[in-house]
Amino acid sequence: MKNNRLHYFSALFITLILGVLSRKITYIPLFIGDVLYAVLIYFGMRFLFIHLKTHKTFLLSLLFCFSIEILQLVQIDWLIAIRKTTLGHYILGEGFLWSDLLCYIIGTLIAFLIDWKFIKTQNSNSL
């Protein structure tokens, strides 16, 4: 169990670094950051809810990402103030885009496949 959490934390940390770098390096397309955001959310969910089945984690992560994107349609003063901070901007985004929903589907699917093919396989081999 502890080994599983370590794998998910490592994947989470690497994805976080790649996501921040994708926003700092100008020649990387912006949609890569959105895909990595979904990957980050998936591995974060796996880290927090280790006993949840992978397909449920997939759906929960997608629901979370979609909720954050739809929340960008809400324009409340205090929410706008949070979005203007660096961390708030990274977590909550800035404006709603339909293309982001596609990026979230792709990112969550990539993370699910990485989990299924590499992390789950590695953990079952170590038992």
* Domain count: 1
Q: Indicate the percent of residues in helices.
A: over 70%
Shape: globular
For the report, how would you describe the main beta sheet? none
Order of helices and strands: HHHHHH
**Rg over CA atoms:** 15 Å
Structural class: mainly alpha
The chain-level mean pLDDT equals 89
Number of helices: 6
Strand content: under 5%
Pfam family, one: DUF2809
Keywords: Membrane, Transmembrane, Transmembrane helix
Protein name: DUF2809 domain-containing protein
Task: Describe the model.
It is globular and about 40 Å long. It contains 6 helices and no strands. It has one domain (2-125). The chain is 80% helix and 0% strand. It is mainly α and 127 residues long. Helix 1 (2-24) packs antiparallel against helix 2, helix 2 crosses helix 3 and helix 3 packs antiparallel against helix 6 (98-125). It comes from Flavobacterium helocola. Keywords: Membrane, Transmembrane, Transmembrane helix. InterPro entries: DUF2809 (IPR021257).
Write the layout of secondary structure elements.
Layout: H1 2-24, H2 30-48, H3 54-71, H4 77-83, H5 86-92, H6 98-125
Helix pairs in contact: 1-2, 2-3, 2-6, 3-6
